[in-house]
């Protein structure tokens, strides 16, 4: 059952979730709690019985949240691997569902698994869906008046709560105008993206295009294709609303 209190929403999960540090399991639960501390995505909370207490050392510090209350901070220690203050324990949270639960800082841990699949960035929301669909519509991307991509064989990526993204085969992109950068980003639904900047004449637009070379299973149909943002995108001749350059 989903429970809400103020800006915080909680919901039990049926996934087995494991957290690793230094090659050892820190927490292992088949009934973790999903907690939306912000409306964008959830985080996992673990009952005390599902946490290896011997790996935790109290810091003597308190983390305060206006909505979740005070939490005791713990350092997670596994051999030489240490994550100071990476665990929070809510003993007397005003939100009843959180009482007695532990929260681990996602980035401070080495790895997270939902069942036997490693997940990245943050937990995947059960309310986010990815659909990648082929389209014969005429889709064109323009930067500074120059067409940099054009296709009737693009893939459209629909992600809950986000604008439609248009992914082009590289053979339908002016790759001579694209320059690779060292930027990378990570998505728990799509994978790790590499980026290109676009140079048109004397104008240089950094990280205007990206691609998931090896996409995660739900986004496989977009693997190796290139998408753009902050550019003028036309679908069947109609300029689409969305973030533009600048």
Helix content: under 10%
User: End-to-end distance, in Å?
Assistant: 44 Å
Give helix and strand order, one letter per element, not per position: EEEEEEEEEEEEEEEEEEEEEEE
Overall pLDDT level: 94
Main β-sheet description = 8 strands, antiparallel
Keywords:
23 strands, mainly beta, 0% helix, 246 residues
Overall description:
- By secondary structure, the chain is mostly beta strands.
- Helices cover 0% and strands 54% of the residues.
- It has no helices and 23 strands.
- It has strands at residues 3-5, 8-12, 17-21, 24-29, 33-36, 43-47, 56-65, 69-78, 81-90, 101-104, 111-114, 117-119, 130-135, 139-143, 146-151, 154-159, 165-168, 178-187, 191-200, 203-211, 226-228, 232-235, 238-239.
- Strands 1-2-5-6-10-9-8-7 form an eight-stranded antiparallel sheet, with no helix packed on it. A seven-stranded antiparallel sheet has the order 13-16-17-21-20-19-18, with no helix packed on it.
- It starts with a strand and ends in a 7-residue tail after the last strand.
């Amino acid at each position: 059952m989903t429970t809400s209190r103020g800006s915080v929403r909680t919901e039990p999960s049926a996934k087995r979730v494991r957290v690793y540090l230094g090659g050892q399991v820190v927490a292992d639960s088949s009934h973790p709690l999903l907690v939306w501390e912000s409306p964008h995505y959830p985080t996992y909370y673990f009952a005390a019985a599902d946490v290896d207490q011997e790996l935790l050392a109290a810091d003597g510090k308190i983390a305060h949240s206006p909505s979740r209350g005070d939490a005791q901070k713990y350092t997670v220690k596994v051999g030489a691997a240490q994550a100071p203050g990476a665990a929070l324990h809510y003993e007397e949270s005003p939100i009843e569902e959180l009482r007695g639960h532990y929260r681990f800082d996602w980035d401070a841990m080495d790895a997270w698994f939902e069942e036997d699949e490693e997940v990245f960035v943050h937990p995947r929301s059960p309310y986010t869906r990815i659909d990648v669909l082929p389209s014969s519509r005429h889709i064109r991307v323009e930067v500074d008046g120059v067409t940099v991509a054009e296709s009737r064989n693009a893939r459209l990526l629909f992600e809950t709560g986000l604008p439609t993204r248009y992914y082009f085969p590289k053979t339908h992109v002016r790759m001579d105008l694209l320059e690779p950068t060292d930027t990378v980003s990570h998505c728990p639904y799509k994978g790790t993206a590499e980026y290109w900047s676009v140079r048109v004449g004397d104008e240089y637009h950094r990280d205007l295009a990206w691609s998931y070379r090896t996409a995660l299973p739900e986004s496989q149909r977009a693997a190796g294709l290139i998408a753009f943002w902050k550019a003028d995108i036309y679908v069947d001749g109609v300029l689409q609303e969305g973030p533009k350059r600048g």
